[in-house]
Amino acid sequence: MHTLSKSDFQLALSCPKKLVYSKANYPTTNDTNEYMEMLAKGGYIIGEMAKLYYPDGIEIEGNQQECLEMTNKLLKQDNVVLFEPVIVYGQKLVRIDILVKNGRKMHIIEVKSASYDSTMADPYKVLSKYIYDAAYQYAVLSEAFPAYEITCSLFMPDKSRRTNIDTLAGWFYIEKSNTTSPENEDIITQQKAKFQKPKVTFKYANHPDKSKYIDQLLNHGFLNWLDVTQNVVDLLPSIKQKSNTFLRILNEGITSNDYKINKNCKSCEFRTSDTEVNGFAECWDGLPAAKDHIFDLYCGGVVTNELKEFHINELIGSNRTSLFDFDIEMLKDKKGNYGTRAIRQILQIENTSNNQEWISDELSAVVDSFQYPLHFVDFETYTGAVPFHKGMRPYELIAFQWSCHTIRHKGATPEHKEWIHTGNTFPDQDVFPNFEFAKALMLHLEDEGTPFMWATHENTVLRNILEQMDEFQIYDEPLRQWLTSMTTDKKSNRNGRWIDMNKMTLEHYFHPTMKGKTSIKKVLPAIWTNFPYLHDVPHFKDYAPENLDESLIDPYDTLSAGIDFDEMDDEVVNGGTKAMRAYYRIRFDQSLSEAERSEIRRQLLEYCKLDTMAMVIIAYHWGLK
After folding, report:
1. Dist. CA 373–CA 407, nearest whole Å
2. Per-residue H/E/C for 22-53
3. Cα 484 to Cα 26: distance, rounded to the nearest angstrom
4. Separation of alpha carbons 307 and 211, rounded Å
5. Which of 20, 138, 342, 431 is the least buried, fewest Cβ under 10 Å from its Cβ?
6. How many Å apart are CA 374 and CA 386, to the nearest integer?
7. Helix axes 477-486, 434-445, angle to 10 degrees
8. Beta pairing partners, 404
9. Which residues contact 260 (CB under 8 A, 6 or more apart)?
């Protein structure tokens, strides 16, 4: 007999058919989603931290039946605090993060690694997803224990709070575990056992002054409670109605009236490359598998009006799922005009139909307007729930690495410069790296030439560092003036020096193999594959393939691990998320040998270097040489 867990309930809210696929163990894209994996690991650290607030709490461990029996036994006590107790009512099952029982009162504490700002006028608006999750737990607990008064709180990082604890992230060690998590709220549809619940160890668990460190955490931490009892109570009628529907589907099967394929299917996690078992393919059985799919449309998931949404769903409903089935009249805005987004969409449809590259008539003049030296810059940054340094807020940005390829004059060989922070500047002090990061970049770029970025990340990072100068009381007027001149800030009507190559792509370039994407990870393979003359350019030969076939060639695949880590087979740094995870490991993973630490550093440098070389390759094709 199937049970409906809180993760099942959350999944079914997005689409009831996903519940069926999940129970049948269909593969999902979340099985290999590193970003979700990283979030989940951060969640376990926050979960362990929250438990320290309840030193008498009891961990519920074992298989499901053992956990249920242990929970029921311990709840017979008048006063008890339980970590991850199992509550069952009929076919409904929940594991509550922290359950506090005092007499005839019970308090649900839902611990989340996501953050909120307690200074907001109405923080509840941004927490609806988590409140819904807590409401299902409340509903099951109240049905199982109807005579009790139940309250409910979210316990999560508060971005308005700064920690007074330095290297707080180093207080917790994440270790590999052989225990597979029975339910992971952050990866609700992960089926494979690749992600295993890590063992999180509090560094001072056995320290003689353990209580002193816990007091620091309680008094200078960043977690905060938010009472959501009334919000949860207001949702109960809806929760009960929906849970009954989901249980009926589990017990009697799903009907065609329970779900409907539509534009939201674009982001379905059951849309995998597995040809044998593919939930998306099953739902779309009978629909033409168009090479140029309607879901490939640029910004197709962003609906600006109900009419456009109706048109997309109408096309799907009538078995027309090709990009070329789209009526471009539907792209007009309410005033009957084609906006910037619509113009890009029409351009995509027309040039995909003709299978030809498009370069605007203005691109050549734009390229000629740039002043040498040309600087192609990429940053690597970290944002995590647990602050690394004293004075930081949860999810405050750390800039730990930059790479720059510079072309001094037309025809010059690109010169590479890099900077990375991977540890202490002084043996007894761990320094917040952002200002050192910015100063090193300032000394390299100075005030001459044209700096390029891809999208707006680099501008946002430098603008944040400018604001952090006030927050951290950094008095460096040359650095302040340089950061001001570099950054664009709409609030201040300030235009900075950065040139956005993603914006240039949107305005001046398209290739059909990019489909509706303009990220550097899509533009580079499209240009690199379709214009092999680039492989003979001396600066780019290191990334050239030995054999060129009809498939897209991704220069990022040229990166190799060079070392086999025990923790994970795919530890090679070839993606932004892995770079974040690598930075965390190099800073706080005590299990690393010096050889492994050096190898991670090498990979970080190579990855960031490739990002800026990718910009050079694309710019070269556009005429910047």
Report:
1. 5
2. HHCCCCCHHHHCHHHHHHHHHHHHHHHHHHCC
3. 51
4. 61
5. 431
6. 37
7. 70
8. 377, 417
9. none
Strand partners, 510: 358
Q: By C-alpha distance, which of 72, 105, 104, 76 is closest to 88?
A: 72
pLDDT digits (tens, 9 = 90+) for 351-392: 999 999 999 999 999 999 999 999 999 999 999 899 988 899
Pairing between β-strand 98-102 and β-strand 105-111 as defined by DSSP bridges: antiparallel
Axis-axis angle for helices 576-588, 594-622 (nearest 10):
150
* pLDDT of 550: 55
Structure token digits, residue 152: 């409910």
**In the chain, what's the furthest Cα-to-Cα distance?**
80
Dihedral sign for Cα 362, 364, 365, 370, please.
Answer: positive
Residues of the chain with pLDDT under 70: 31-41, 176-197, 274-275, 289, 301-310, 423-430, 546-553, 556-576
b/e sequence 465-482, b meaning 16+ C-beta within 10 Å: bbebbeeeebeeeebbeb
Q: What is the DSSP string of 250-302?
A: HHH---TTS----GGGGG-TT--S-SSS-HHHHHTTTS---SSBGGGSTTTT-
Distance CA 254, CA 236 (A): 24
Entry field: residues in the chain: 625
d(CA 244, CA 511): 49
pLDDT score at 192: 45
| β-bridge pairing 58-59 and 79-83 | parallel
Quote the tokens at residue 127. Answer: 């927490």
Check whether the bond before 373 is cis (ω within 30° of 0): yes
pTM (2 decimals)? 0.89
Using CA atoms, how far apart are residues 100 and 89, in angstroms rounded to an integer?
19
Give 85's contacts (C-beta < 8 A, 6+ positions apart): 60, 67, 70, 71, 74, 75, 95, 96, 99
381 burial via Cβ count (<10 Å: 0-12, 13-18, 19+): buried
Distance of CA 146 to the CA centre of its chain: 39
Name 125's Cβ contacts closer than 8 Å, sequence gap at least 6. Answer: none
Residue 177's pLDDT is: 59
CA dist 497 and 484 (Å) reads 10
Give 376's strand partners.
405, 452
Contact in structure between 109 and 155 (CB atoms under 8 Å): yes
Question: Contact, 560 vs 569, CB < 8 A?
Answer: no
Domain ranges of the chain: 6-252, 286-354, 371-501, 507-622
Cβ atoms of 6 and 135 closer than 8 Å = no
User: Which residues, 6 or more positions from 66, have their beta carbon under 8 angstroms from its beta carbon?
Assistant: none
Residue reference for tokens 């070392």 = 563
Rg, C-alpha atoms of the chain = 27
Whether 210 contacts 203, CB under 8 Å:
no
What 8-state DSSP symbol labels residue 429? B
